[in-house]
């Protein structure tokens, strides 16, 4: 388990850090972006909110797709597309284009957080769930603490390459996300039985442990997709 923690936790923290940076940097961009694009505060706020429309609508479908195609491919896709769209935000020309890009950004990023949590269940027995999730959430306070100085420093580069400060910020903070997304495709492993960093005995032990837990859960109750989506508790938890 120590091997798996060291393999997955740093990646999870870094990816969540990047996700949160790309989510909150728009607040700093708004200091000058609104005036540059002649957006009212109402139009700017509405455009910001479209991100969560896309995220909410496509969150569950994203996780269903990840279950089918594998975490390595899908998490890489999420990071690459959200990074590209975060960079494209630098090209918006008004409230309409800004709202569209924000909505698409929500669609692209949808399923990332719950997808990582689902991915953890492929690797960690239930005893470790609280520990790995709490470690993963370290990325949130780190992003909040570092996001402000990083974003404001990039805003201070106004005029570099003929770009406004907020444009530089969007592009500069999008590039690492795309690069890490590419690395994810080659670095991440879908299931323990495919892991080259585990010995044969370790793979067998972990696979059997996870299978036994899954059988115990299925013996209690299984839900179809329709039953899950029509259960009030599902929406309360979200």
Question: How is this structure best described in words?
Answer:
- This protein has 238 residues and is mainly α.
- The protein has a single domain (2-191), classed as Growth Hormone, Chain: A.
- Helix content is 79%, strand content 0%.
- It is built from eleven helices and no strands.
- α1 (2-36) packs antiparallel against α8.
- The two termini are 29 Å apart.
- The mean pLDDT is 86.
What is the strand and helix layout of this fold?
Elements: H1 2-36, H2 41-69, H3 71-88, H4 95-109, H5 112-123, H6 129-136, H7 139-155, H8 165-187, H9 200-220, H10 225-229, H11 232-237
Helix pairs in contact: 1-7, 1-8, 2-3, 2-4, 2-5, 3-4, 3-5, 3-8, 7-8
- State the assembly state of the protein chains: single chain
The helix/strand class is mainly alpha
Q: For the record, what CATH class applies?
A: Mainly Alpha
Please indicate the count of domains.
Answer: 1
CATH topology: Growth Hormone, Chain: A
> How many angstroms does the end-to-end distance come to?
29 Å
Overall CATH architecture = Up-down Bundle
Classify the helix fraction into a percent range. over 70%
* Rg: 20 Å
Instruction: Characterize the largest beta sheet: strand count, sense, and whether it forms a barrel.
Output: none
Count the strands? Answer: 0
Give start-end ranges of low-pLDDT stretches: none
Please name the fourth-level CATH homologous superfamily: MFS general substrate transporter like domains
Shape: globular
Mean pLDDT: 86
Strand content: under 5%
Separate helix tally: 11
- Reading the helices and strands in chain order gives HHHHHHHHHHH
